[in-house]
Amino acid sequence: MKRFSKEESSWMFYDWANSAYSIIITTAVFPLFYKAAAMKAGVSGADSTAYLGYTIAIATFILAMLGPILGTIADYQGMKKKFFTFFFALGVVSTAVLVFVPIQHWLLLLIIYTLTALGFNGALVFYDAFLIDITTEERMNRVSARGFGLGYIGSTIPFLISIAIIILAQKEVLPFSTAAASKIAFLITACWWALFTIPMFKNVHQKYYVEQEPSPVRNSFKRLGKTLREIKQYRSLFLFLLAYFFYIDGVGTIISMSTAYGTDLGISSTSLLIILFVTQVVAAPFAILYGRLAEKFTGKKMLYVGIAVYIIVCIYAYFLKTTLDFWILAMLVGTSQGGIQALSRAYFAKLVPKKNANEFFGFYNIFGKFASILGPLLVAVTAQVSGNSSSGVFSLILLFIIGMIILAYVPETRADAIDQFDEKKQTKIT
């Protein structure tokens, strides 16, 4: 296996760049900051968790609606980088704006958080689509997995700095409040994200595209309509998306709501931050390991392994009682969350037509984001109805099982999918 090229390394480094947002804003510091703000305003623990779930659902719904449309327009020459830049800027700027929101304004926090999520996830649509521009099909599993591995390694640095600042503020070693320390973490996130995206801007370029034509927006809708009309030709691709819809729902929900869930269980914020830091450390080598094992055993088999681990996580979460239990749960998640996301991205990239990659990654986004609506809503409603967050997490087990079953019908590569389509077509003619 040859060394990674400049384009591959620069692309992978964006995982390093945006990982600060993933851990500090999505998973750790912001949810704790928000929970503290909601508590000060007299909002109950179950309700504040539910409101966070509803906010995530709203943000993902907006992006899910825009994904295929923007993706189809971005297939034109030179457009992919422009869309990536817009959403990247939205994410970085709105993350920095969190610094200026007073802690007592918990509702405003959720509104700004929605903008950060739109920027972060919107940029990912086009970043993921760049995978087909920077490497070959044979190297996609390893490159994608290495990207996630770098992300977990990179996230530990700003996260560790943020944890240190927050803990020192709590112990009154530093001359400012815990709330101020959390805001410093938000600023660190924005700066880290912006600084380490520079290689992506310099060295990654769109190689596969649709030629520019008059009325690009109108013609983009026409191409999108044509794809939907000819959906039978992409049966395997959309079967994968359906499987992905179900299993990634559980993955995303557990990631985005883990700290809120831990808080409801009575685990201290300091313990949660330390647990999440160790989870990142564990996740890095396992993400890379998934990529290497996928080359030996195929990506599909390793996806089965990841889904199976998450089923165990859901079952264990139902019986969670102590901080030690949460440690065990977090380590289980760490072994598979990067691997399952990395191999899903590479699996899908192998199936898509290269010139229409953005259009299809728009669908990848819409299926992933609609899944992110269902999961948090399920946990939110269950938490409010039962008064117990564990029941909501346990219910996610059904989604993993459905995803695993559908995945069994998806071929490994686009060539296999075309052969499968041609065989069925020939059988029908005969």
UniProtKB/TrEMBL annotation:
InterPro entries registered for this protein in UniProt: Atg22-like (IPR024671), ATG22/LtaA_families (IPR050495), MFS_dom (IPR020846), MFS_trans_sf (IPR036259)
Membrane topology: Multi-pass membrane protein
GO molecular function, one term: transmembrane transporter activity
Keyword check for Phosphoprotein: no
Residue ranges of every copy of the Major facilitator superfamily (MFS) profile domain listed in the record: 236-430
One GO CC annotation: plasma membrane
Main location (coarse class): membrane
Segments passing through the bilayer: 12-34, 54-76, 83-101, 107-127, 148-168, 180-201, 237-261, 267-290, 302-320, 326-348, 360-381, 393-410
UniProt xrefs under Gene3D superfamilies: MFS general substrate transporter like domains
Record keywords: Membrane, Transmembrane, Transmembrane helix, Transport
Top-rank taxon: Bacteria
Localization annotation: Cell membrane
Descriptive protein name: MFS transporter
Species per Swiss-Prot/TrEMBL record: Fictibacillus marinisediminis
